[in-house]
Design brief:
497 residues; alpha+beta; six-stranded antiparallel beta sheet; four-stranded mixed beta sheet; 38% helix; hydrolase activity, acting on carbon-nitrogen (but not peptide) bonds, in linear amides; peptidase activity; ATP binding; Pup_ligase/deamidase
Length: 497
């Protein structure tokens, strides 16, 4: 049992420029991509190859007619092809729905997922500093006025697992994991119709359980089926998560999700467990969990049981333990002998934050303000502590423009941001040196290694790249298996067509 699988993240950045009330966000985003491209002038000619992309293929077994879908679903549109900057670390930077987006390279571990996600921030910062443009980018998801943009996750999952089981499991996890993955937000409702503070930035923007779309009528379970790999796999595309500044929530976001997918892939009969834990109304639960800072409210399962978000997570963790115990030996305490340090780390942190949340559930608002150790692992709690302290000091309300401005500043990549002032209070897992290295070098254990190295070392030979191909002047490298073309893989003429 392991958290290790092919995974990756996508970050759409909020964007603003000094000055104008009437700034053109699409043009600003294009300017950012141009600045990123200029960091590596030798690769500016390289195109992104959309040939293998099919954004209308649905995981439920059919394809939506292109003529019948909204244009913003067609992410392979020819109009977007000039707004790409493939990176020497294996990532892709491009304009997506008027936002600059960084799509990380494929990685195998939660730690690397966090590292390469953070390296996107460094690439963006470096590009803006080099270009001298007065643009600010935000690792956030909302503007507080009704607009929301994404922070997505991708997991390569065995296609033999029925999609309905994936959907049932993930809706429960998505609705309840936000108690330790949420990054916090000022305002309740999509346009902050009510004053207040909530756990998740994204929760209020989801209105359906399952669907193909990503920018309207957002579903908890997105059904886009583009594996960028062989038909043995599906890419489970997650759009419901928050953008995190802290390491622990981000690592747990991808780590616990990967771990649960492993359990589903290896449990011989998961149906009984899934039936026992399925939410009666997952969309309402998603909203309500985010609005409950006490983490004590309960939510009904289809079988009529009432459980809190913490209790749902404890059930999920117990199931993982049960599947692991049937797969591996256990130690004298009954702890499964986890196969690698990455899995041990995720399990230990998952256990710890659930203990933290049990303490939160028993604390008053005044007591929550002094929970500094727990806030070092729970981003929403740390943000709430800072903003609530300011609210009390100023004797103001959650509708205060000051608190809204502080909320926005939290996501800013600028060195003067609120986050930079309080980052030392959080539990750091990834060193700045590792992030800087990842901004310039691809991971060595997936096909991203070949994509990045070819761009860095032989850019004049490269015509175009995609997730699963590299088009060279003398042929095409087909990389359908993301576990190959690693640092151990020799590229020769037999790989080309």
């Amino acid at each position: 049992m392991s958290v290790r699988r092919v995974m990756g993240t996508e970050t759409e950045y909020g964007i603003s420029a000094r000055g104008g009330e009437y700034e053109n966000h699409a043009q600003l985003s294009f300017d950012v991509i141009q600045a990123v491209a200029q960091l590596n002038p030798r690769t500016q000619h390289v195109r992104w190859d959309y040939g293998s992309e099919n954004p209308v293929q649905d995981a439920r077994g059919y394809a939506m007619p292109r003529a019948h879908v909204r244009s913003d679903l067609l992410t392979d549109s020819p109009a977007l092809r000039a707004t790409n900057a493939p990176q020497v670390n294996g990532a892709r930077v491009y304009v997506d729905h008027a936002h600059p987006e960084y799509s990380s390279p494929e990685v195998l571990t939660p730690r690397d997922a966090v590292t390469y996600n953070r390296s996107g921030d460094e690439i963006m910062r470096r590009a803006l500093e080099t270009s001298g443009q007065q643009i600010t980018l935000y690792r956030s998801n909302v503007d507080g006025k009704g607009a929301s943009w994404g922070s997505h996750e991708n997991y390569l999952v065995e296609r033999s697992v029925p999609f309905e089981q994936l959907a049932t499991l993930f809706t429960v996890h998505a609705a309840t994991r936000q108690i330790f993955t949420g990054s916090g937000r000022v305002g309740l409702g999509q346009a902050s119709e009510e004053p207040g503070f909530q756990i998740s930035q994204r929760a209020d923007y989801f209105t359906q359980k399952v669907g193909l779309q990503t920018t309207f009528d957002r579903p908890i379970v997105n059904t886009r089926d583009e594996p960028h790999a062989s038909d043995a796999y599906r890419r489970f595309h997650v759009i419901v998560g928050d953008a995190n500044r802290m390491d622990v929530p981000e690592l747990l976001k991808v780590g616990t999700t990967s771990l649960l997918f492993w359990a589903l892939e290896h449990d011989a009969n998961p149906a009984t467990f899934l039936e026992s834990i399925a939410l009666a109304d997952p969309v309402s639960a998603l909203h309500d969990v985010s609005h409950d800072l006490s983490v004590t409210q309960t939510y009904r399962t289809l079988q009529g049981e009432e459980l809190s978000a913490v209790q749902f997570q404890l059930r999920l963790r117990s199931w993982v333990y049960a599947v692991a115990a049937s797969t591996y030996d256990t130690d004298s305490r009954g702890e499964p002998l986890w196969p690698d340090d990455d899995t041990k780390e995720v399990v230990a942190l998952w256990t710890q934050v659930l203990k933290d949340l049990l303490k939160v559930s028993k604390a008053s608002a005044d007591e929550r303000l002094s929970m500094t150790e727990e806030a070092g692992r729970l981003e929403w709690l740390l943000k709430w502590q800072i903003l609530e302290s300011m609210r009390r000091r100023k004797a103001t309300h959650w509708s205060s423009p000051l608190l809204k401005a502080m909320d926005i500043s939290w996501g800013s990549l600028a060195q003067s941001s609120l986050w930079e002032k309080v980052a030392s209070r959080s539990q750091r897992l990834i060193s700045q040196g590792r992030i800087d290295t990842a901004a310039k070098n691809p991971p060595e254990d997936t096909r991203a290694y070949t994509r990045g190295r070819v761009l860095a070392e032989r850019p004049e030979e490269v015509i175009a790249v995609s997730w699963d191909t590299v088009t060279l002047a003398d042929g095409v490298l087909h990389m359908d298996d993301p576990y190959t073309f690693t640092a151990q893989h020799k590229i020769d003429s037999t790989n080309r067509s």
